[in-house]
Amino acid sequence: MGNLIEVKNLKIVYRANGRDFIGLDGFSGSFESGKISAIFGPSGSGKTSLLMSVGTLLPPTEGSIVYDGRDVYSLPEAEVQKLRRKIGITFQEPTFINVLSVWENIELALYGAGKLKAEFKRRAEELAYKLGIGDILHKRPTEISGGEARRAAVVRALAHDPDVLLLDEPTAYLDGESTRTLIKLLEEEKERGKTIIVTTHDPVFDKIADAKFYLQHGKQIT
């Protein structure tokens, strides 16, 4: 796919305890291939809701998300599943299966993407060493630090070589050197034509992002 993602008038409403809560109220924007797009905003501003919806994991209450001319939430489930295999995503709090090693968690993601092949395993290992976590792949997720878990989640998201990469606060818990290494990797993936969307508080993305969006209290601001 050409990796153009168009979000139009997106609204997300959550229902809890008999009340409606607006997670996102009318976001619009385009995300292009070969670019890093950063979504800035404080906690609770709707950044994660937006990312989850773009990642086909949270149906919007109103509005649309269009991948290369196709409205994601109007597609048959089989087509959505195919699309998901072209998306890599990390969550604000990395989640792993704790009875498996970090490497086994990565292999499981490759299997789910239909890419459990030697070339993708090699790619995963290369990514891990690039990000400085090659020596912790044999460990259980409970035995690694928060920063290592975040980098492992990035490796897992990138291992199957997706067209679209969605990262929720990817530099949280990372020290300066680890952040610089991750930024370098994202710039390399950008040059390879990926559509990269990052939610962040980190001012480093203010310098490298090709497109910037701002959220506050669920609303898009300029």
UniProtKB/TrEMBL annotation:
Domain ABC transporter: from-to ranges: 7-221
Keywords tagged on the record: ATP-binding, Nucleotide-binding, Transport
Pfam families hit by this protein: ABC_tran
Record-level Gene Ontology MF annotations: ATP binding; ATP hydrolysis activity; transmembrane transporter activity
GO cellular component: plasma membrane
PANTHER family assigned: IMPORT ATP-BINDING PROTEIN
Protein name: ABC transporter ATP-binding protein
Originating organism: Thermococcus waiotapuensis
Origin organism lineage: Archaea, Methanobacteriati, Methanobacteriota, Thermococci, Thermococcales
